[in-house]
Every structure is written in structure tokens, then in C-alpha cells.
Amino acid sequence: MTRTIPANRPPAPQPSPEVVRITHDLVPAAARRLVQQQGQEIEEAARRLVASAPIHGIDLTFAWGTLGHDAKGIPFVRQVCMGVPGSGRTAMLFLSEPMPGGDPGGASVARAERIACIDALCAHLGQERPNRVRLAQSLPEPGEAWAIQALTEAGFVKVGDLAYLRKPAGAASAEVAAWPEGVRVVRLDQIEGDREAVLIGALERTYIDTLDCPELCGLREVRDVLASHKATGTFDPSLWWVVYSGTQPEGCALMSRCPEQRSIELVYLGLGPALRGRRLARPLLSFAIGHAARGTTLWPVTCAVDARNAPALRLYQGLGFARFASRVALVRPITPR
Fold first, then answer.
1. Per-residue model confidence (pLDDT) at position 172
2. Closest by alpha carbon to 86, among 48, 58, 105?
3. pTM
4. Is the pLDDT of residue 5 over 50?
5. Is residue 12's pLDDT more than 70?
6. Could you give the C-alpha distances from 223 to 89, 175, 269, 333, in angstroms and in order?
7. N or C: more exposed end of the chain, with fewer CB within 10 A?
8. What pLDDT is recorded for position 331?
9. Cα Rg for the chain, rounded, in angstroms?
């Protein structure tokens, strides 16, 4: 007698992928999966990654992957997730792309393996580095649906679509005829007392009703955010400006030079409620760029902004910035275990 299996019977559960931490002997195989998969130079790109990683402070064994074996029984890395701890108690995650001929087991199996790798790395961060990393983040391109889906299903939350903007090199005014009454713009290195407390106070004011990735508010301590800002490019307090409304720090414009990229980064620009609507943003930004560009007039200025922040986009475009790249910002808080 033949048994009939009901058509609505759920599929048999798939076993959880086995995830291992990448060891030194697996680093070349992991590197081959971490470099761009579109093109004919994967092996050469992987060798360059292995050679340059130590120079940039990247530990290729701080990664978790799933393994397969070729016809000769030699292990290869199917999927991998690598973490790069950064300043401000963050870690940036990088995922393996789909293979040129398709991932082993198909797209759904590959997605499950990527998720398992992400979970393994985040679990390690919570267990072994709870005080060193409090937020995992990733910045896939908008068209990398495979990465966005895996990260989302692994518990990451989208906090914004980032527009990366660039202003070509050129002259900028470093002078303002006069700031409005009651407004002072003070260089950080000229502030007496606890400068970090002043900056934190200014940043907190700018976060009120912010249009720039508001989902991030409350996910990080402001002190950690400040540490990340200082780690962008070469920190120079003479290029950081605090805006006062009376005696209250109410905004800031933070610039950094990035010699390796031969560019200037607008690290952060924000004004608190007391200064909004007073047409301060444009002269403040032009003023800050003008000071940062002294001696580096051939360097472009770059920044990133939430694509939903229409007032900021109008400001930047009005000063000659244009978009050159886009990313999807995804984060996952790391809970100590």
C-alpha cells in the first residue's frame, strides 16, 4: 500500500549550519570569500587582503565561517562573517558575497549560513568583549539584498539610508561678518574647563528631534559617539567648533583632515532647538570648511548624511556637495552575556 504525504505537510527542518572560528590556516580561504567576487582576480585580491590586513589593524581570524570540502577533501570556506572592532565600542561586520557560480546549497542555504556566522560573531562579542563592543554595525550597498536580508534576519535594525557626499576642492570662506546676537562659535582648543563635557552637552542638544538617523538615539552612550568622532581622520581640536546660545553649548561643527585619502571629512554638524531656523547652518559649515581647508585647498570635503534629512541635503547641495555613494546603515546592540 502506498502512503500519500499530505500536500500541506511542512518541510523537514534543516539542521543548523556548523560554524567555526577562522583559524590561521583558514585565513587564505576566508580572504578569498571576503573580497569582491565579481571579476577574475579573486586570488590576487585575497593575497592583497592578507598582506594589508595587519597594516590596517584587521585580524582575519576575528571571523566565523561555515566550511565545505572540495573533491580532494581540502576544506574551503562557504560563508564567513568578519568583525573589525572600532572606536566608540563598535564593531563593523563584513559578509561573504554570493559566489560567481552560485553559493553551495543555493541562496536559502547561503542565507542561513550567513545568519549563523553573524550570530556566532555577535555572541562572541557579548561573551568575550562585553565592555569593548556595545554595538555591531554593517553598511551594505542598497543593491546587496543578500546581505541586508541576512543581517535583518540576524537581528540587525535599519537606522537609515546614508548618502555619501563630496564637495570638490576649492576656496571656501573662513570668515563670517558677524554671528547673530547671543551666538558664539568657539574653537574647541580655546574652551577652558572640561571640553569633553562641553562637547557631550552640545551633541545631546543636537539630538533633540534630529532628522539624521533618529533610530540611533539611545542605542549608544554619547561618550562612545564622541570617541568615534575623534577617531575619524586626524583629530585636531583647532578644527572642532562649539556653537553657544548664550552660555549654553547648543551645536557643533566637527572637521577632520584625512591625509591617507587626501580629503577633509565633515565628521558632524548639528544645531540644537534654540539655534534652528536662524539661518546659521550654511555660514557655520562654510566657516568650518574654510578653516579646515587652509593649506589643503586641493583636498575635497566629504560627509555622510541620512537620505531622509531633506534640510541637510539642501544645505550640502547648495554648497556644492554631490552624492558619490550610498549605503544602508544596519545596527545590532551587543548584550553582555
1. 63
2. 58
3. 0.90
4. no
5. no
6. 10, 31, 17, 16
7. N
8. 98
9. 24
Distance from the first to the final alpha carbon of the chain: 54
CA dist 319 and 168 (Å) reads 10
Does 1 score more than 80 pLDDT?
no
Hey, what's the cell of 14? Answer: 534543516
Query: Which of 3.50.30.10, 3.40.630.30, 3.90.190.20, 3.40.720.10 would CATH assign to domain 20-155?
Result: 3.40.630.30
- SS3 state at 115: helix
The 3-state DSSP composition of the chain as helix, strand, coil percent (nearest 5) reads: 35, 25, 40
Sheet harboring 263-271: ordered strands across?
20-21, 63-69, 75-86, 90-95, 135-138, 322-333, 157-167, 301-306, 263-271, 248-258, 240-245, 183-187
Beta-sheet strands, E only, within 212-320:
240-245, 248-258, 263-271, 301-306
β-pair partners for 21: 64
pLDDT recorded at residue 296:
80
**Hey, what's the cell of 256?**
577632520
Q: CATH 3.40.630.30 residue ranges in the chain? A: 20-155, 165-328
Q: Whose CA is closest to 77, among 93, 62, 63? A: 63
Give the pLDDT score at 175. 72
Alpha-carbon distances of 142 from 30, 166, 207, 248, rounded to whole Å: 24, 19, 26, 40
- The percentage of residues in the chain with a pLDDT greater than 90, rounded to a whole number, is 83
The tens digit of pLDDT for each residue in 254-295 reads 999 999 999 999 999 999 999 999 999 999 999 999 999 988
For residues 61-90, give the mean pLDDT: 93
